[in-house]
Amino acid sequence: MTTPEQLIIIGNGMVGHHLVEQLVDNGGLERYQVTVFGEERHRAYDRVHLSEYFSGRDAESLALCDADYYATNGVELRTGEAVIEIDRTTHEVITDQGRYPYDRIVLATGSYPFVPPIPGNDREGCLVYRTLDDLDAIRAAAENATTGVVVGGGLLGLEAANALRGLNLDTAVIEFASRLMPMQVDNEGGELLREKIEELGVQVLTERATQRIEDGEASQHRMVFQDDKILETDLIVFSAGIRPRDQLARGCGLEIGERGGVVVDDQCQTSDPAILAIGEVALWNQSIFGLVAPGYQMAKAAFSTLTSGDTHFSGADMSTKLKLLGVDVGSIGDAHGNQNPGARMFRYLDPIKQEYRKLVVSSDGKKLLGAMLVGNNSVYDTLLQYYSNGIELPAEPASLILPQGSGAAPALGPDALPETAMICSCHNVTKGDICGSIDSGAMDLAGVKGATKASTGCGGCTALLKSVVDHELESRGVEVDKSICEHFSYTRQELYDIVRVEGIKTFSELIEKHGNADTHHLGCDICKPAVASILASCFNEPITDAAHIPLQDTNDTFMANMQKNGTYSVVPRIAGGEITPDKLIVLGEVAKKYSLYSKVTGGQRIDLFGARLEDLPDIWGELIAAGFETGHAYGKSLRTVKSCVGSTWCRYGVQDSVGMAIWLENRYKGLRSPHKIKFGVSGCTRECAEAQSKDIGIIATENGWNLYVCGNGGMRPRHAELFATDLDDEQLYRIIDRFLMFYVRTADRLQRTSVWRENLEGGLDYLKEVILEDSLGINDELERQMQTVVDTYQCEWADAISDPEKLKRFRSFVNDDRPDPSIIMTSERGQLRPA
C-alpha cells in the first residue's frame, strides 16, 4: 500500500477550508495525509458575515463546518498553533510546538489589516477589524466608550462602522480619499453613499489624513489631522486596507511581488513547485484578489494541481453586491470606465429616492463593460449576466437602469441565460452545472444546492438560483409544486384570496369546497395553523372559539408559550415599554403568589415563566383586573413596539417616541399575520430603540418621522430599508396600515417581512409603487380592512376567562383536576427554574 504524502495547509480561513472540502469530497485524502494549521483558536468561520457577530451570532453559528468535521474525515486540524518558519532544506514546517515534515505545502495565510504608520496608533483602544478575537476586543472596549472612529472608508471600513453603531457608539468614518469606497464608486455614487450613511447617524469625514493620535481632553483619544483640525473619540478601529500575510514565504526565499504577495502561476504554484499559495496571500498576474469567490476558485485550481488535474486559475471577476450599513452598493466590471477607451456611459440619479445607477457600455452600445449601483441593487443580477456572458444589450441600454414603469427593460429570464452563465460565483456554479444536477436527479431547490453547493456561500445568488431551478424543472415537464400542503393545491396567498372573496369563516368549509378530493379532510400541521391565521387576519374573531381551536398549535390553544418542562409563560402587554409603579407592583405580586420566574425581555416586556396550565386563567384574571391585557407573545401577530424615552426625557430626542410607540401598539395589537411582527420607535437618529432591526422601524426627525421596513434580528439579521421620510403622524399610520395589510395578503406562510421583501418581484421599488403611489388602486381597501381589525379588537384572554366552556380546557388531565406531577422545579439566584 502506497504511503500517503504529507500535505500541510497553513491557514484555516474560508479559502483554506474550501481546499480541505475539495480534498474530502473528491478523493484527495487517498493520496495525502493532511494537516491544517490555524493560528486562531476558532476553526474556519464565515468572514463574509463577520459583522453579524455583533447581531447575536456566535462563533459556533459562523463556523463553516461541524466541530468533528476534520477528525471524522481523517484531517488533523491544529488550531491555536502558528507556523513560524518553513525549512525548505529539510522539508519541515516549524511551529512554536514542534516540527512537521511535508511533501507539499499550501499557503492560505490570507491577509492582515494595514495600520497606517501614525504616531500613537498603538495606544490602548486602537484596534483592528479582522477576526473574531478582534471583534471581542472591540466589544470589550465599547463597554466603556460612547464614541468610536473608523479609519478607512472602504468596504471593510463601513462594515466596521456598522459594528460600532450596533454597539451604540456615536460613530464617525475617516477616509483619506475624496469619497467613500473609492475603488467601487465614482464621485456621484460616493456623494449619494455619503448622504445615505450620514442619514443613519454616522459622521463621514473625507480627505482627512491623520497626523498623530494623542491624549484627549473629553475622550480617551484626540486625532489630529493634516490641517490641525481635531476629533476626539474613545475608540479607534483601523480598517485602511489589507496586506498579504507573506512573511513565511519571504522567510523561506519564495518569490514575492514588488508590493507584497507570493507570486503564483495558473496552477497556484509558487517559485518552489512543492509549495502552493491561494487566497489573499497569492499574487497572480500582478493582482491580489480580496474576495472569497476568487479564493475558492484558487482552491479548486490548487486541488487540481495536487491531484494532477488540469484545472487552472485564470483570474476572477471582482464584481460585488454589498449591503453596507443597510445601503445597497453594487460594482460590476469596469465600473469607472477607465479600462476601455471609447466606452460610453449612462447615468441615472434619483435624489428623492436616493438611487444612483451607472452603465459603462462598448462604443457600439452592444456590450456591457461595467456598472455601478448605489441605493438599490435590484437590477444587479440582470446586469451581471449581461456582463459575464457577453449578452447583447437592448437597443436602448439606458432602459436597464431606469426605474420600473419608466421605460425599464425587463429582467433577463432564466431562458435567456446561456449554459455558461455564472449563477454562484462563490462555488463557480454555472447554469449548465445546475441543469446537469437536475438531469442527474435533483428535483427541487434543496437537491440542487446539495449537488452543486450553489447559494451556500455568501447567499447573494439565492433569488437567481431559485428562478433558474424552477424554470429548468418546468421546462422538463416537472410541475413546480407551490401548494401549501397535500390538502390544498393553493399557495397561502391564494387561500387568503379565496377566504376573502367567498367569505369563508371555517376550516371545514374551506377544505370541503377547495381541499383536494384525494386526501382526508382533517388537514395537517401545515395547513391548519395557516388557515387559522388567515381566518383571524380576515375576520378578527377570537382564536379560542370552538371552530378555531382544532386548528391551533399548543401556544395559541392555551394563549401562552409552552416551556421545556411543560409549564407556560405569561407576557402581558406593556405598550411602548411604559408601565406605572402600580402595575409593576401587580406583576411582582402575581409572580410571587404563583412562584413565577421573572425576566425583563429585549422587547421591553416582563415575562413570567413557570405557570402551570391550570393556573393560567387565575393569573390572567388578576392581571386583567389590574388593567393588563394579552401581549400576544404566543401568536403570529404584533409582539412589541420598542421605544426609547424620546423628547419627553432625552436631551437628544426630537419627537415623543414613547407616545408614538404606545399609539402604534394599541392600533395594531389585534392584527394576526403570516409571522410575528416587531416595531421600534426611536426619538432621534441615535437609534436607541434599534428600529432598523425591526419589521417596522420609525425614527424621529426634526420634520416628523422616517419609516423603515422589512428588517429583523435573530439568526439571520437584516437591516430595515428606508421607505418614506418626514411623515406626519397621520401619514405614518396610513402607510403602515397599507404596508401591513398588503404583507398579510401576499406573504407566504411563516414568512417574515424581511424574507417576503427579498422574494417580492420588483423589490422595494415595487413595494413603494403599491403603498406610496397606489399603483394597484387598493390603498383605500387596505386602509378599510386595517380599520376593521382595529375596531373589532378584543383581548383574547379576557374573552377566554369570561367563558366557562373555554375554561374547561385549562387542566393537565381530562378526567382529573390535579396538577401535573411531572413538573419539578429547583431554585437558582432566588427564583424557581426547571429542575
Model description:
The chain folds into 7 domains: 5-110 and 245-307, FAD/NAD(P)-binding domain, CATH 3.50.50.60; 114-241, FAD/NAD(P)-binding domain; 317-408, FAD/NAD-linked reductase, C-terminal dimerisation domain (Enolase-like, domain 1); 413-479, Orthogonal Bundle (Arc Repressor Mutant, subunit A), CATH 1.10.10; 492-552, no CATH class; 553-635 and 805-834, 2-Layer Sandwich (Alpha-Beta Plaits), CATH 3.30.70; 636-802, Sulfite Reductase Hemoprotein, domain 1 (2-Layer Sandwich), CATH 3.30.413.10. Helix 1 (14-25) packs across helix 8 (292-306). Helix content is 30%, strand content 21%. The two termini are 56 Å apart.
Secondary-structure arrangement, i.e. CATH architecture of the largest domain: 3-Layer(bba) Sandwich
- Name the structural class: alpha/beta
CATH superfamily placement of the largest domain: FAD/NAD(P)-binding domain
* Residue windows where pLDDT falls under 50 for at least 5 positions: none
What percent strand? 15-25%
Q: How many strands, what sense, and barrel or not for the largest sheet? A: 5 strands, parallel
CATH topology name of the largest domain, in short, is: FAD/NAD(P)-binding domain
Count of folded domains: 7
Please bin the fraction of helical residues. 25-40%
Q: Compute the gyration radius: what is it?
A: 29 Å
**Overall geometry:** globular
List the total number of helices.
26
